[in-house]
C-alpha cells in the first residue's frame, strides 16, 4: 500500500503558470532520474509543455539538494542563457537555483520566473518567496498511518493506494 501525490498534475500546474506568465524560454531542473519522483516530475513537465506547443524543454538533473540545484542552475545558464521560466523538481533545488540566478544578476520574477515543487519551508524561506506546487504532506502522512493501522487490524486486506491532488501556491517568484 502507498500514498502519493498526482505528480503529473502538479507539473502541469507549473507549466500552465509559466506559460500564463508569458515565459517563452522555459527549462527545468529534474530530480534524480533514478527515482520515481525525479522521472515522473520530468516526464510530466515535458508532457505539459508539449501540450502548450513546446515539444523540447531544456533540462538538467539535480539531486534534490540545495547544492544540487546550484550546480544544475549553473549548467543550465551556461547552456541556455535565454531561459526566462524555470520549473524545479523540488523546493530545495529551486532555492539553490535562485541563489545562482541572483549571483548572475537575474531578477526573479522580472527576468526569470521560478517554480518549485513540495511547498516546503525552503519555499517560504527563499527570497523571493517561491511559487510552488504543494503536496499535502500532513494529509498524506495521516492517510498512510491510517492505512498501516488498518493493515495491522486486518492483515489479509489487499494493498491499496491513495493519490492526493497537488495545488499551485502562488508567491513572488512566478
**Shape descriptor:** elongated
Annotation field: number of helices: 6
Radius of gyration: 17 Å
- SS elements, strand count: 8
Task: Give unreliable regions as ranges.
Answer: none
The amount of beta strand, in percent, is 15-25%
The oligomeric state is single chain
List the strand order in the largest sheet.
3-2-4-5-6-8
Reported for the largest beta sheet, the result is: 6 strands, mixed
Mean pLDDT equals 96
Tell me roughly what share of residues is in helical segments: 40-55%
Detailed description of the structure:
By secondary structure, the protein is of the alpha/beta class. Helix content is 45%, strand content 19%. A six-stranded mixed β-sheet has the order 3-2-4-5-6-8, with helices on both faces. Strands 1-7 form a two-stranded parallel sheet. The protein is elongated and about 60 Å long.
Amino acid at each position: 500500500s502507498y500514498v502519493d501525490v498526482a505528480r503529473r498534475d502538479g507539473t502541469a500546474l507549473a507549466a500552465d503558470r509559466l506559460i500564463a506568465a508569458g515565459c517563452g524560454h522555459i527549462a527545468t531542473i529534474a530530480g534524480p532520474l533514478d527515482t520515481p519522483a525525479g522521472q515522473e516530475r520530468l516526464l510530466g513537465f515535458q508532457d505539459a509543455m508539449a501540450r502548450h506547443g513546446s515539444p523540447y524543454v531544456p533540462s538538467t538533473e539535480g539531486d534534490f539538494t540545495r547544492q544540487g540545484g546550484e550546480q544544475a542552475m549553473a549548467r543550465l545558464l551556461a547552456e541556455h542563457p535565454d531561459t526566462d521560466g524555470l520549473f524545479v523538481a523540488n523546493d530545495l533545488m529551486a532555492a539553490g537555483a535562485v541563489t545562482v540566478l541572483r549571483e548572475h544578476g537575474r531578477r526573479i520574477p522580472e527576468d526569470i520566473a521560478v517554480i518549485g515543487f513540495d511547498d516546503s519551508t525552503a519555499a517560504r524561506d527563499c527570497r523571493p518567496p517561491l511559487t510552488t506546487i504543494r503536496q499535502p504532506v500532513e494529509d498524506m502522512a495521516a492517510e498512510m498511518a491510517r492505512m498501516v493501522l488498518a493493515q495491522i487490524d486486518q492483515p489479509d486486506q489487499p494493498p491499496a493506494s491513495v493519490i492526493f491532488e497537488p495545488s499551485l501556491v502562488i508567491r513572488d517568484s512566478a
